[in-house]
């Protein structure tokens, strides 16, 4: 049985950039380009009409930025009880406050706008499969970003509900280790690690591993 192609929407205020990404996506047999928008307000309406699987969202745009657009798209999908589209934020900087705000608002990760085409395509397929993506080097940038702040909020009470094993796996995931790497280090199966990660996300009310990493650095739980 042939799988339906992954439906992709692109939101960016630069027409030339949109044209290049559209050509890239159209060249892939498992991807389908279903629309583009030049600002966040257009994006909200487009996603409502096209119901894409993945949205490539620029952060800085006129009329409405990518952060607010992401929040509105996620809220609208939640309100109607439909599956949330996966949003990949596109940014010029490796990590800044706007990127972390977008992640908190519902994005499944972020990439640099000058990422290699192969990496962008892999990211689309990765988020569609339910995982999260972060630009290479972003874990280090997260550390620098949150270390630069004078104070850090205390972890919520839900963090204390993690078991000792869950806390160990949380910290390893926060440092960027994959399930396979955690499994090898902790002498567990990948399936067991995946189960633990799912429980951690549920207890902390986090959507995915990107939010887990942000949570860890925001509360200074990783050193």
Automatic annotation (TrEMBL):
GO terms for biological process: phosphorelay signal transduction system; regulation of DNA-templated transcription. InterPro entries: CheY-like_superfamily (IPR011006), NreC/VraR/RcsB-like_REC (IPR058245), Sig_transdc_resp-reg_C-effctor (IPR016032), Sig_transdc_resp-reg_receiver (IPR001789), Tscrpt_reg_LuxR_C (IPR000792), WalR-like (IPR039420). CDD domains: LuxR_C_like, REC_NarL-like. Residues 155-220 form the HTH luxR-type domain. Gene3D superfamilies: 3.40.50.2300. GO terms for molecular function: DNA binding. It comes from the Bacteria. SMART domains: HTH_LUXR, REC. The keyword DNA-binding applies. Keywords: DNA-binding, Phosphoprotein, Transcription, Transcription regulation. The modification 4-aspartylphosphate is found at residue 58. Residues 7-128 form the Response regulatory domain. PANTHER family: TRANSCRIPTIONAL REGULATORY PROTEIN NARL-RELATED, TWO-COMPONENT RESPONSE REGULATOR. This is Response regulator transcription factor.
